[in-house]
Amino acid sequence: MEGEKKNRPDGRLYYSVLLEFYGKLLTDRQRAVIGYSLDEDLSLSEIAEITGITRQGVRDAIGKAEAQLSGYEEKLGMYAAYRDRQKCGEELCRLIRSGSADADSMIALVKTMCADQNL
Hints:
This protein is mainly α. The chain is built from seven helices and no strands. Helix 3 (28-38) packs across helix 5.
């Protein structure tokens, strides 16, 4: 898991990506509050005013939403799988552009990618 932390975006970007993958699993309030924070870049005070809850309530809701999003990723790994597929696609593009790869090496890479992703 330590290696996984090194390969993920940090902070706001990480949670923004997780929100895209798992946002529907949050409560409406959590999704709104963390969305205002991440997508709209609103302050705790601004979010509190919009939602009618206290600043501390906003802070707590964001913290709980972040913990839940991280937990979903830890259990389901959708972002990690997506990132791995992106890396394989980038490697395929690099091989194609370089002209150094033959069809057999590209097929082997695709087979490896599909096996790693259980496709």
